[in-house]
Amino acid sequence: MKLPGIRSMLFHSARFVAVLIIGQTLYFKFSGSEESKFIFSVLGMEPWGRYGLAVLETLCVLFLLIPRFVWFGALMGFNLMLGAVLSHFVFLGIVVQGDGGLLFFLALVVFSLSTYLLYVERKKIPYLNKYID
Measured over all CA atoms, what is the biggest interatomic distance in the chain, rounded to whole angstroms? Predict the structure, then answer.
């Protein structure tokens, strides 16, 4: 979809900010940082849940980078970050190991950006596009 000027910059900025945020957390998940181990231990998903989510987030990043599949990357990002936000609310709390709520804030940012990207790309979503004018 061709977007005029400022909308195009906003769209691409949203894509790449989401990619940067998700991408930088992948290192910590794959390397097994203490904070990641703590989070997934509290969730009862250490280590396989950590690896599984890291793989899903890697796929999300790849789909966000491919213009034809931005809608799918945004859908993945939306769902992954919804799970992260709910995990913070239910199990972890906003502040995890003294991070000042940074992980929670980043999850909210990616969730918001993914919601925006889904809205912009809504006509490209198969089976849903015929119901959207």
Answer: 48
